[in-house]
Amino acid sequence: MDDQFIYTEIFMQADKNKDGFLTFEELYEQMKKFGYKDEELKFKDHLEKFSQRDDKKLTKNEFLEAMHKAPHILHEAAELRRRFYQLDLNKDGMLDKKEMEKVLGCLGERVTVVELDLLMKKFDKRFRNNRSMKKMKI
């Protein structure tokens, strides 16, 4: 998916009343759903630089400009979080063995129980058979 499409999708989903403007609060909630974290983006400060009005709202074009000028690493981290959320089928914030096996199966990889155990141990230093997004540093 290309960046422009993702940014447009974020804006469109956040613009519930379809007036073409978003408050920072509306946008903030939608950005979290797309994997962005406030402390990384310094969200409000960054976006306020692009608002042309005093009403604390952004147009779609202002938002797109702001997103394109944000550091690329922030978008990459958000993409990893989005993928993690998709893989975390039971939404517990962890990837367990079953979820990892399903992911690998979707990728066409068939692994034995031993291989899966080794893979989980490689990512899970405490050997709890799961891996949280926080521990993966994304």
From TrEMBL:
The keyword Calcium applies. Residues 2-37, 75-110 form the EF-hand domain. One of its GO terms (molecular function) is calcium ion binding. PROSITE patterns: EF_HAND_1, EF_HAND_2. It holds the Pfam family EF-hand_1. Keywords: Calcium. Coiled coil: none annotated. The keyword Calcium applies. This is EF-hand domain-containing protein. It comes from Helobdella robusta.
